[in-house]
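dumping this here before i forget
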Amino acid sequence: MSYNLLKGKKGIIFGALDENSIAWKVAERAHEEGAQIVLTNAPIAMRMGGIKDLAAKTGSEIIPADATSMEDLENLVEKSMEILGGKIDFVLHSIGMSVNVRKGRHYTDSKYDFTTKGWDVSAVSFHKTMNVLYNKQAMNEWGSIVALTYMAAQRVFPDYNDMADNKAYLESVARSFGYFFGRDHKVRVNTISQSPTPTTAGQGVKGFDGFIAYAEKMSPLGNATALECADYTISLFSDLTKKVTLQNLFHDGGFSNMGVSDAVMEKFTEE
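structure:
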């Protein structure tokens, strides 16, 4: 269902890999709500996913960019403004990668050049993106920037590994940069802390299926889906949330405020 929430708005969406990606669903929903978008992903990810299909479906152009490269990001922002015909109203950062996780290294035995690479891709890339947007004055007033995160930034999920630290850093960057972006350009910056979601990124985490089932039982409303996350993201890109900024917003069916649920207790209670 469309509400025309983004009619006439222009945006950049990072990280749409395939149709399970939250970013993919955000792109589809933004298009349905009347936005014009530019899609971007790392050159290597461009070869893996079907981003060309998404571009065709949403009438978007694709600009490959390594989000850790200032040069690539500057090119992305300049070209996006040319393509879209003006400044940008919304940006989605949906990028996360841990080399330690990929290589099967335990958290207590990190390889630190892997740590640094994952941190650069997952967290510093958000700072770099905002740096370029801020210094090029590329955002319209009352624009909105959102990054996707996960509650392992605050609480321990043992197998989430160093991605937990990357997400904590990402959330801090949203607050710190968000202050200056709000003060100087009336742009809001928030993170959405989403339920565990069966995306390509999510499925890289060990024991993921068990964890999704646990979160489902713990949350009074059940886990939030990728499409539901996209809907929430659209609301943050819309003019209905103009004064929401510097927030880490839990979108998780209530999981983040639960201690225990009846459904979980049942598993541990002898009749």
